[in-house]
Write a structure and sequence with these properties.
The protein is built from 1 helix and 15 strands; from the N terminus they run ββββββββββββαβββ. It is mostly beta strands. The chain has a domain of about 130 residues. It has a 15-stranded antiparallel β-sheet that branches. Strand 13 and strand 14 form a beta hairpin. The longest helix is centred in the C-terminal third of the chain and has 4 residues.
């Protein structure tokens, strides 16, 4: 960190294995006002990442103003910076744009937006070829403007809102509403990593709501020629309003 009242800039290139820092700037000239500014521009995971952050100390946390952009970055290259590091991320971050303001441990104060395009995520718990996501945050609410996920022939589309809590511990308890729709011409591929194996095709649409820490789903599912372990239904089957 720079000495008090003096910004520190490192414009020279700093190389590590698969990473190259082109610019690292730490400005502590306002440290007496409990404010620190950081700028970074680097090559990582075969792509480019740049970021800027202004951090201001509050009585019990940090007030942040963060901007991050990334293009064509291998997500696995970021694992070493995460806890736990091994295998947390996969795929390629095709494009990321993030703007965020707010107190770190007070989600209700957050405001900003995120746009993410990511390809080729293949993990045991999630598997898709490409995804595009748009999120906006403000006035105590996070809005999923769109989330489109494609897995070969299968497609899923989500949008909705969640009321941001006052603290992290309250996540999952505040009201949320999601709309979901999808087409799965290839159920075998969709269920390939699950214990229950199905074949055939399906379409579904509905809503998922969270209220008072309770999840309620209302889905309409239409399936064709669904094959189970003990036989195949060749007819068209509709399951309206499945709630849980």
């Amino acid at each position: 960190m720079a000495g008090r009242g003096f910004p520190l800039k490192l414009p020279t290139r700093i190389k590590t294995y698969q990473e190259q820092i082109h610019l690292l700037s730490v400005d502590a000239s306002h440290i007496e006002a409990k404010t620190l500014s950081i700028n970074i521009n680097c090559s990582i995971g075969g792509g480019q990442l740049s970021g800027a952050a202004a951090l201001t100390e509050t009585k019990s946390s940090l007030d942040t103003d963060v901007r991050v952009t990334a293009q064509k970055v291998s997500a696995s290259s970021l694992n070493k910076f995460l806890i736990p590091p091994e295998g947390s991320l996969s795929g390629e971050i095709k494009q990321l744009s993030l703007n965020e303001k707010g107190v770190i441990n007070q989600p209700r104060t957050w405001s900003g937006a995120m746009s993410l395009r990511i390809n080729d995520v293949h993990r045991p718990e999630i598997n898709f070829d490409r995804s595009v996501m748009e999120i906006s945050v403000g006035q105590g609410r996070a809005t999923l403007l769109s989330a489109d996920i494609v897995q070969d022939k299968n497609e899923f589309h989500l949008r909705g809102t969640i009321e941001l809590p006052s603290t992290f511990e309250e996540f999952g308890r505040t009201p949320a509403n999601l709309e979901i729709a999808g087409t799965a011409p290839d159920l075998q591929q969709l269920m390939g990593r699950f214990p229950v194996q199905l074949t055939g095709s399906a379409e579904f649409a509905g809503k998922i709501a969270i209220a008072n820490a309770t999840i309620e789903a209302n889905l309409n599912v239409t399936a064709n020629a669904v094959g189970f372990a003990n036989g195949t239904r060749s007819d068209r089957h509709t399951l309206p309003g499945v709630c849980c």
